[in-house]
Write a structure and sequence with these properties.
This protein is an alpha+beta fold. The chain is built from three helices and 22 strands. The two termini are 65 Å apart.
Length: 365
């Protein structure tokens, strides 16, 4: 009986070893089937090209929000978004019945004032003759003169009132302030137009510029007339622009200083207002802070963004890809500064000829 039990235990133990061996063999075969991904590696650079990298956008040289100073119903809008307009062209009309009524009142007041002036003038001339013949007293002449001057003042007041009404009438017709294109239609026919509320937006199409904001720590390095590289990702183009304006105040821009750059005429093709760009403004290397001399720089293209985290792939001791989260700083052209998470001479994966993920085998080209 004891011999049978011992034999049974040996059989069970042998079966377990065989199963374990088979599993291990299957695992090794599976691992062997995972081909290593060819990769290209590099180490962080430390030489910063002297310059300031900021974001910006293309905008029109002139933009006008077309509004009125009177309240009334919009009778008609003669243009639509995308239409090209000429300076002085009629864009929209606003109902002005109340202004028309006021204009009629002022016309009647002027007619009455003119009649009073003519009558007072006749009295003045008659009493002047009588005074010269010593048939009227000086007091009587003074009274008539006062009435004549008062009639002329009332006529002047009525005339100025008519001028005011005429000026208000001009606001019932909205015209283009310059040659351009309609970029926004903010109201429809039948809507109520309110003073100062835009109805249309017109932008000048003959001139485009780049607008960017620079921090207070870098604004002193930027001078009017300097050149800058502007990367327009939408059309995959890099253009050399000239700084045309540097704002001396950041009061209305949230602590950021506004910088504008002119675009050469030959490079304005296929550009539209509102496109976002990356601007790199070269400055003297000596002007850059010393603490950036040994900065850890990696290509922006090598970064991996997931949710709100930024990382890049490194190589583990087992020659597998390892995603490491990092904290980034300023951007310098096509490179970005790594503040933490990567050592200065530590290798990282720049590109791969396949999909990278944690644990995938890799081999360096």
């Amino acid at each position: 009986m004891q011999h049978v039990k011992t034999t049974t235990r040996i059989i069970i133990f042998s079966s377990a070893l065989m199963i374990s061996s088979c599993k291990g063999k299957d695992h090794n075969e599976t691992t062997d089937k995972t081909a290593a991904v060819p990769i290209t590696v590099s180490t962080p650079g430390g030489n910063i090209e002297g310059g300031i990298a900021v974001s910006g956008k293309i905008e029109a040289l002139q933009t006008a929000n077309i509004s009125t100073r009177m309240m009334g119903t919009i009778n008609r809008i003669y243009v639509k978004v995308g239409d090209r307009v000429r300076k002085g062209q009629l864009l929209a009309t606003i109902s002005s019945q109340d202004i028309q009524a006021k204009k009629a009142q002022t016309s009647a007041a002027i007619a009455e004032a003119e009649a009073n002036v003519r009558n007072a003038q006749k009295d003045f001339e008659r009493f002047s003759n009588l005074y010269n013949k010593q048939s009227a007293s000086a007091k009587e002449l003074d009274n008539v003169t006062l009435q004549y001057n008062a009639a002329k003042s009332r006529l002047e007041a009525a005339t100025q009132m008519r001028n005011e009404v005429s000026a208000m009438m001009a606001y019932s017709s909205l015209t283009a302030p310059f040659d351009g294109v309609v970029t926004q239609k903010l109201a429809d026919e039948g809507n109520m137009a309110n003073p100062g509320v835009p109805v249309l937006t017109v932008e000048q199409t003959t001139g485009l510029q780049v607008s960017a904001t620079v921090s207070e720590s870098d604004i002193n390095l930027i001078k009017k007339g300097n050149t800058a590289k502007v990367e327009m990702k939408a059309i995959d183009k890099i253009v050399t622009c000239t700084i045309s304006e540097v704002s001396p105040s950041s009061y209305f821009t949230g602590g950021q200083y506004l910088v504008k750059l002119s675009i050469p005429e030959k490079d304005k093709k296929d550009l539209y207002a509102g496109m976002y760009v990356n601007v790199f403004i070269p400055v003297n290397t000596s002007a850059i802070k010393k603490d950036t001399a040994n900065a850890v720089l990696v290509p922006v293209a090598s970064l991996v963004n997931k949710d709100q985290l930024t990382g890049l792939y490194t190589i583990s001791s087992n020659n597998t890809a390892l995603l490491r989260w990092i904290r980034t700083g300023k951007t310098y052209g096509d490179k970005i500064e790594v503040l933490s998470g990567l050592a200065f001479h530590e290798k990282f994966i720049v590109s791969a000829e396949g999909n990278l993920y944690n644990g995938v085998p890799v081999k360096v080209n």
